[in-house]
Specification:
2 domains, rod-shaped, mainly alpha, 147 residues, 3-stranded antiparallel β-sheet, Arc Repressor Mutant, subunit A
Length: 147
């Protein structure tokens, strides 16, 4: 994924630590000093980082524009994370159960897809007990009405 490229790694590192020398960054990036300087020059030309001398050491930090980019990258990483999808799926299941429960109009055909989702191993342990209990009551009611 493109977030593993050196410029994005630099933005992430600086966003996390605040500032650092080019030597420190090149060690963290596991790249040569020359390559780090080259990438930092491009980032500086684009207003993402700013370098300044502190004694004999050139220190790099994010600009305001770089901070905004860092925040955006973090949001994108969060959205792309498996946990995000898991939470979104669970929230959708819980909302659907609540909607059906509130309407009172449900039967086995409407509940089968939800039953499948609730019993999925990757979701099973993450669904709240109250939601699970509500679903079980709905399922039993639907089965009884079907008989």
């Amino acid at each position: 994924m493109f977030f593993n490229r050196v410029p994005f790694k630099i933005v992430n590192i600086l966003g996390d630590i605040g500032s650092g020398s080019i030597s420190e960054l090149s060690r963290m990036l596991e790249t040569s000093y020359a390559h780090a300087v080259k990438v930092l020059r491009v980032l500086e030309d684009n207003g993402i980082v700013k370098t300044e001398m502190r004694g004999r050491t050139r220190v790099v930090r994010l600009t305001d524009r770089g901070e905004k980019l860092y925040e955006t990258i973090k949001k994108i990483e969060e959205i792309l994370s498996p946990e995000f999808y898991l939470k979104k799926k669970i929230r959708r299941i819980e909302e659907e159960i609540e909607r059906l429960h509130h309407s009172g109009r449900f039967g086995v055909p409407e509940l089968i897809p939800l039953k499948y989702e609730i019993e999925r191993p990757d979701l099973k342990d993450h669904i709240e007990n109250s939601t699970r209990e509500k679903f079980v009551a709905m399922w039993e009611r639907a089965l009884n009405e079907q008989m």
